[in-house]
């Protein structure tokens, strides 16, 4: 008797997904490439370690793995994004048949997914790009899944994906078909972009509280836990409180961790995609650049010695910092949703923003009370900044973010994401921007022409400026 579902790549995520699938009663086959010098194969060792895998079949030979599956075959790849995905596709292809389905669950670049979708379609094989979020624990307990690709192929795999995924507050699967081609991986990329900003905003707030308000990490943890009791509740804020309580000997562990942020490229892809689609995702871009600046540790040390930046205490009340954070999070989510909307139009994906946020309510890294608020709101509202409830929140928090940004800048604190959020909002709510000057300059040196306020859709005018 053949297995119903196959998984290739037993790394951190692949292992957790296999245990999740087998634990739900599915008959699976698992494959990991053979590592030279190791007697026993990885899949077999893994199978022996977990009782829920007793019905799972383990392989280190590709042909035997593919042939162990019922047709149409359903094979999920959990290998590193990039050339490994293309390599594995080439390895399985000779053994596949028309109608089989390949599912890429890695963080693949959405344009690679579109390319693979077209390539495999020519060969009669369906390709699904499925964003997976939630990390190792999420993959095991129930991840948030963002599937894109062929809708008919989705119907054949949804039983597996929707069973293993997380549940939303109403008990529905945090997984549903989202769009064609590379839509699933684009949505996962946008999720990671929002995640970058959410993380950086917490890091900025943490620094203001630690240095500006002279609070010890455990006191900041108490405060973040208190914030988590209300509308600011989020997975990332919860884990930050736990991080801040951790000690190693007499030291706070956070103080022992090197201040150089790594990244795997998804924030870069989101920034590039936003820029190409003409979406000013300024908060996310600032979060990415903050990671890049952090990487220049030795230059920062030299600059610190040269400029000896002394940070000033902050006079502003903590509740202002809280409301500045609240304000910036709204702008961050607005920018992420704007990016998805533009991509949806550009690629004709017909994305449903409310449904995407519903999938993000549980299992994923950016799950939060605010995402839950967005699910019903996005059913009727296209632009969240024009919604009365959101406008109320922004108006309430505006003085707080203005004061926080001003005092933090005067006190020499780097707060790129808080500042970006405020500047974005200040630009967004201008009915008369300063872009008339840009148009005049373009016309002066390049004769590009400009339109006039009294005829905004009309012919271009040109002035002989000299
Ligand atoms: P790991 O590095 O833990 O595992 C990668 C797996 O891919 C290993 O089993 C590895 O095999 C296999 N592999 C790599 N190259 C090849 C190849 N050329 N041929 C065959 N097998 C190959 O990665 P993760 O499990 O963390 O991540 C997998 C994917 O999931 C990535 O795209 C990642 O971005 C994404 N992801 C990761 C999350 C996380 O929190 N870790 C969260 C969400 C998505 P071997 O053991 O032989 O090297």
UniProtKB/TrEMBL annotation:
GO biological process annotation, one example: pentose-phosphate shunt
Pathway the protein takes part in: Carbohydrate degradation; pentose phosphate pathway; D-ribulose 5-phosphate from D-glucose 6-phosphate (oxidative stage): step 3/3; Carbohydrate acid metabolism
Its EC number(s): 1.1.1.44
Similarity remark: Belongs to the gluconokinase GntK/GntV family.
Protein's UniProt name: 6-phosphogluconate dehydrogenase, decarboxylating
Subunit text: Homodimer.
Keyword hit for Kinase: yes
Shown residues in whole-protein numbering: 167 to 632 of 632
6-phosphogluconate dehydrogenase C-terminal domain ranges (all copies): 184-466
One of the record's GO molecular function terms: phosphogluconate dehydrogenase (decarboxylating) activity
EC class name: oxidoreductase
Catalytic reaction equation(s): 6-phospho-D-gluconate + NADP(+) = D-ribulose 5-phosphate + CO2 + NADPH; D-gluconate + ATP = 6-phospho-D-gluconate + ADP + H(+)
Function: Catalyzes the oxidative decarboxylation of 6-phosphogluconate to ribulose 5-phosphate and CO(2), with concomitant reduction of NADP to NADPH.
Keyword terms of this UniProt record: ATP-binding, Gluconate utilization, Kinase, NADP, Nucleotide-binding, Oxidoreductase, Pentose shunt, Transferase
